[in-house]
Amino acid sequence: MLSQKTCKGSILIVDDNPTNLEVLSDTLTAAGFQVAVALDGETALEQVQYYQADLIILDVMMPGIDGFETCKRLKANPLTRDIPIIFATALSDTTNKVTGLSVGAVDYVTKPFQCEEVLARIQIHLKLRNLDKILETQNLLLKQEIQQRKIAESLLQKLNQELEQRVSYRTIELSEALQKLEQTQVQLVHNEKMSSLGRLVAGVAHEINNPVNFIYGNLNYAMEYNQCLLTLLELCQENFSSLPSEIQLYLKKVDFDYLKQDMPKLLSSMRIGTERICEIVLSLRKFSRLDEADKKIVDIHEGIESTLLILQEQLKGRANHPEIRVIKEYGELPLIECYVGQLNQVFMNLLTNAIDALDEQNSRPYLVNNAEPATIQIRTQRVHQDWVKICIADNGSGIPADLQPKVFDPFFTTKPVGKGTGLGLSISHQIIVEKHQGQLLCHSELGKGTEFVINLPCKIKHDHQQKQNLEILQTI
Ligand SMILES: Nc1ncnc2c1ncn2[C@@H]1O[C@H](COP(=O)(O)OP(=O)(O)O)[C@@H](O)[C@H]1O
Ligand SMILES: [Mg+2]
Questions:
Q1: Residue nearest to atom 1 of ligand 1 (CA)
Q2: 410: Cβ below 6 Å to ligand 1?
Q3: Cα 414 to middle of ligand 1, angstroms
Q4: CATH number for the domain including 417?
Q5: Does 51 map to a domain?
């Protein structure tokens, strides 16, 4: 047995002729090959199961299965199909040579053997086989590398996706933070503005309230006393045939007959005026509700009415301003739990916007049919056991479609500097949506008018209840 180091390779010789076997075996052994032999095809097929041949020399004509069949079976077996096979055939037998090559042999040697030639051919084919093996290994390595690169690429893609996702999450977080910041800023401005406005209104109302009550409380007495004095004078006139000339002159001078008729009228119109002041003061107090920062259960029609009263002057017709008709369609509403002062602020914002839009429309009469008077329509309705709806609509200028998504943005205004702050609707939105967990919607058509819809829950719910509550609203 040759050592692994000097062995040039293992050759299996299959031949039924012992002389051939011996010659070839001796030559190959001498040349440094390890040699195994088989006398027929079947034995050779069995032998290759445990003998690792690098090359097979196969005789064609053998007892049992011939060389071609043996070759076919070797090529059909994945374990042996790569072993190079050289056929041994007679010198003149071209058919055998061709058939041998067609069933998978790599070469042929002719009998009688030319040992030098056989050796040279074996060496070439072993070399080719080795190159083949190297190529296969390299191919395998290349395939593995491609596979690894593919894995790395998909990993990179995944990382990239993750990164993109993280960037987009972060962007969303940042823009949410920015929005919150803006809202907080608006809220701060609003709180500051509202608390000082509220304090001012409440202060004025309080200051006026005392003297007005003073006047109102004494008016009845004044009327009564006046009646007494008049009666006294009449009695004098009746009971004295002639009054002293000084008194008669004085009665004439002051036109006593007219004074007697006018004085009660004057006092009663004073009473009407004072009652009106009392009403306005009450509205101002109701509107500011400074003492009621907490939730209260109220009739929201009262809030709407007091807001309308405050705005009454602006609803009246003036030079360059049409009179604005207010049509109220109040439904049966339950008492609502709400932050009254803030809700009234929403009514105020929506109504002043409507008045502004109607004023603007007047300055651009081509927008609306002139025959249609400037109108604000206020409708209230209980739309569900837990929900009420308040609509404030005007037939003013309307809002262009491209501006409609912006009207609730803080500081968005189309009004001239000094008139608009652009905060009214964003504050109203915050009050309705965040404070009361309701909805504030805007429907508008350019040149036709605008409607703001407030959907308000009858009771302010906790966040988790509110989600369900809002779902109800979708079904209405
Ligand atoms: N009823 C309305 N009709 C037409 N435009 C309106 C109406 N209400 C609001 N707008 C538009 O929305 C903008 C924002 O309103 P708002 O937030 O109250 O701010 P401001 O009234 O100070 O401008 C207004 O400038 C106006 O362009
Ligand atoms: Mg406004």
A1: 354
A2: no
A3: 7
A4: 3.30.565.10
A5: yes
3 belongs to a structural domain: no
Cα 357 to ligand 2 centroid, rounded to whole Å: 10
Whole domain around residue 71: which residue ranges? 10-113
| Minimal-distance CA residue to ligand 1 atom 7 | 353
Does residue 75 sit within a domain?
yes
Which of 95, 113, 131 is the last residue before a domain boundary? 113
Q: What's the structural domain count of the chain?
A: 2
Q: Domain for residue 350, yes or no? A: yes
Q: Of 96, 113, 130, which residue sits at a domain end?
A: 113
SS (H, E, C) the chain: CCCCCCCCCEEEEECCCHHHHHHHHHHHHHCCCEEEEECCHHHHHHHHHHCCCCEEEEECCCCCCCHHHHHHHHHHCCCCCCCCEEEEEECCCHHHHHHHHHCCCCEEEEECCCHHHHHHHHHHHHHHHHHHHHHHHHHHHHHHHHHHHHHHHHHHHHHHHHHHHHHHHHHHHHHHHHHHHHHHHHHHHHHHHHHHHHHHHHHHHHHHHHHHHHHHHHHHHHHHHHHHHHHHHHHHHHHCCCCCHHHHHHHHHCCHHHHHHHHHHHHHHHHHHHHHHHHHHHHHHHHHCCCCCCCEEECHHHHHHHHHHHCHHHHCCECCECCCEEEEECCCCCCEEECHHHHHHHHHHHHHHHHHHHHHHHHCHHHCCCCCCCEEEEEEEEEECCEEEEEEEECCCCCCCCCHHHCCCCCCCCCCECCECCCHHHHHHHHHHHHCCCEEEEEEECCCEEEEEEEEECCCCCHHHHHHHHHHHHHC
What averages of pLDDT result for each successive group of 10 residues across the chain (476 residues)?
A: 65 94 93 94 94 94 94 94 92 83 93 90 93 93 96 95 94 90 76 66 81 90 92 88 87 90 91 85 66 78 92 83 92 94 90 90 50 90 95 94 89 82 83 89 93 94 65 68
Judged by its nearest atom, the ligand closest to the C-alpha of residue 413 is: 1
Whose CA is closest to atom 9 on ligand 1?
A: 353
The CATH number assigned to the domain holding 50 equals 3.40.50.2300
User: What is the Å distance from ligand 1's center to 350 Cα?
Assistant: 8
